[in-house]
Task: inverse folding
């Protein structure tokens, strides 16, 4: 089968058994995390990709169209026993940590990670379950009360999805690209003008994917505000720790979300996914697709089989 790995497109045997479900991938999405992994983030060397929809090839779910939770836990530690493998110390993560990913013709995941996709959710929408779940995870880690003012920094795919899921909280979205900012359907401000918004936000969500977003976030937060960090990138962020101390800022990390609520939200049609797709290429053009995905102004690049 074909597989798009950190070092390029290659031919590999289909992944072997191990009691896990074999999934024929139909469509996968290139995430900014894939681009960071290719730069050396986390030292991953395998097949990239963690956003996919596919069809189960064998076993109880054979023939079922599915998406898959990306964290595969050990199944026996306290975290796993509590039903949340996202922090299992020995977990593998699809296309990110010690597990080959979805930019291939086939992948394997434990059957318990797979979730059937309702017929009303298109393949394109289903590929967005993982990033949409990550957007919803903000509220799991940082519940927002009515009337609290919210700012989202970053008009990339994740920033847009976060602004969309927080629409009821009337967030202000900050970014560099007017055409992207317009997609979220919320109030927005260009990055260069953002400091003029002032220190008025109770919650700032940093999803810019760059280290400079942290400094801007601190400039926008009220004292004792909450700063939610969503960006994962290869590199480190310089931090003005004294500022966090003096202003008594609460810093909250947030990563993966749960798939079921994200699928339910896609079923309602309440999130407009179509405009978030910039290009669809075939897996055979995977290397070019990665280059395209890295171009400024690009949103989601999909890989069809
Ligand atoms: Zn992702
Ligand atoms: Zn575990």
Result:
């Amino acid at each position: 089968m074909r597989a798009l790995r950190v070092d390029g497109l290659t031919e590999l045997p289909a992944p072997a058994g191990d009691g896990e479900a074999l999934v024929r991938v139909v469509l996968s999405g290139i995430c900014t995390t894939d681009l960071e992994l290719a730069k050396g983030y986390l030292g991953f060397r395998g097949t990239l990709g963690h956003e996919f929809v596919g069809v189960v090839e064998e076993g109880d779910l054979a023939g079922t169209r599915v998406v898959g939770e990306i964290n595969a836990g050990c199944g026996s530690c306290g975290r796993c026993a509590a039903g949340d493998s996202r922090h299992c110390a020995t977990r593998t993560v699809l296309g990110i940590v010690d597990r080959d990913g979805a930019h291939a013709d086939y992948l394997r995941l434990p059957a318990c990670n797979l979730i059937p996709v309702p017929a009303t959710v298109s393949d394109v929408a289903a590929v967005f379950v993982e990033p949409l779940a990550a957007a919803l995870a903000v509220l799991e880690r940082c519940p927002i009360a009515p009337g609290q003012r919210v700012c989202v920094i970053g008009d990339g795919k994740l920033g847009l999805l976060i602004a969309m899921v927080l629409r009821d909280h009337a967030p202000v979205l900050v970014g560099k690209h007017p055409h992207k900012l317009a997609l979220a359907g919320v109030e927005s401000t260009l990055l260069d003008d953002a400091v003029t918004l002032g220190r008025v936000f109770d919650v700032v969500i940093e999803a810019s994917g760059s280290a400079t977003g942290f400094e801007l976030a601190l400039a926008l937060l009220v004292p004792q505000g909450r700063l939610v960090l969503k960006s994962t990138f290869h590199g480190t962020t310089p931090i003005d720790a004294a500022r966090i101390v003096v202003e008594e800022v609460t810093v909250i990390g947030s990563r993966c979300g749960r798939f079921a609520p994200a699928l339910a939200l896609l079923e309602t049609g309440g999130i407009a996914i179509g405009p978030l797709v910039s290009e669809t290429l075939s897996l055979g053009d995977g290397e070019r697709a990665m280059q395209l995905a890295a171009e400024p102004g690009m949103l989601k690049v999909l890989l069809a089989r």
Notes: The pocket of zinc ion (ligand 2) is lined by residues 73-74, 77, 79-80, 85, 88 (CB under 6 Å). The first helix runs from residue 32 to 39. The mean pLDDT is 95. The chain has ten helices and 17 strands.
